[in-house]
Amino acid sequence: MSASEMPAVAPVAAPPRPRFQINWVRLSPLLYTIGLFLLWELGARLSGLPHTILPAPTRVFEAIVQYWSPIWKNSLQTLYTTVLGFLIAIVAGLGIGLFIGWSKTIYAGLYPIMVGFNAIPKVALVPILVIWFGIGTVPAVLTAFLISFFPIVVNVATGLATIEPETEDVLRALGAKKLDIMLKVGIPRSMPYFFGSLKVAITLAFVGSVVSETVASNSGLGNMMASAQSNFNVPLVFAGLLMLAAEGIAMYALMAWLEKRMTGWAHRSTMAN
Question: Which of 21, 213, 227, 237 has the smallest set of CB atoms within 10 Å of its CB?
Fold first, then answer.
């Protein structure tokens, strides 16, 4: 067959350009938040309740604009006490968790004591802290610490205590000592537990700070909301709650980013978009 008789080859069509796709997973937090505020606004208007009972979001945002200066000042104070107490909880929780997880005997002896201490409502400790340290920042920092360090201790100790006995036997047979096993196996194994506990601990730290500020402080969002409540300024109370939610979400996102950054090797995504 000559070249002139060969069938013409149809040109290969260029692959279609990928169309713009909306990532609904990334947009879902924003969409759900907008939907929640819309439902709130609709419910407040349809119920006919006065803003001293259930203010609409628009009224709350007006309060944020009107009282922005005290809201911002008290928000920074609450963030300061929360982060400081949280950092102390990290240091203490990591140290105590490593100590408890060092030995099964220590774990079995101290774990019930830790559970009993955690069962005590931390708001009941605030009056004692006021007697010891007076009204101010210190009780708020200590309350944030006391309420947030338990999840860190439990998760670190659990990560250390769940090392397989077979792994320990193999390492001991190879000449590894207890310290070597803890440093090279136990502590790396407990890191996913540790960073996972930070997300829970930071939210609890905000709870501790606000509880203490409500009853034993002259500054912070807890004190501001208590003062607004006494004046029946409910929109300002809700404005303080929104600021707390914003700070909590920001700190939670930071802890989640740290967890993914530091222990990404320990997590595998199993969820489809």
Answer: 21
Return the DSSP state at 184.
I
- In sequence order, the 6+-apart residues with CB closer than 8 A to the CB of 235 are 51, 55, 59, 60, 62, 63
Residue 201's domain is classified under what CATH number? 1.10.3720.10
Residue 271, token pair as written in the block: 């969820």
One pLDDT digit (tens) per residue for the chain, 273 residues: 555 555 555 555 555 665 667 777 778 888 888 889 899 889 888 888 888 888 889 999 999 999 999 999 999 999 999 999 999 999 998 888 888 877 778 878 887 888 888 888 888 888 888 889 888 889 999 999 999 988 888 888 877 776 666 666 676 777 767 666 676 676 777 788 888 888 889 999 999 999 999 888 888 899 999 999 888 899 999 999 999 999 999 999 998 888 888 776 665 554 444
In whole angstroms, what is the distance from residue 12 CA to residue 37 CA?
52
How many domains are contained in the chain? 1
User: Would residue 84 count as lying in a domain?
Assistant: yes
Type of residue found at 57: P
Residue 130 sits in which domain range?
70-163+190-263
Q: Cα 91–143–241 angle (5° rounding)?
A: 110
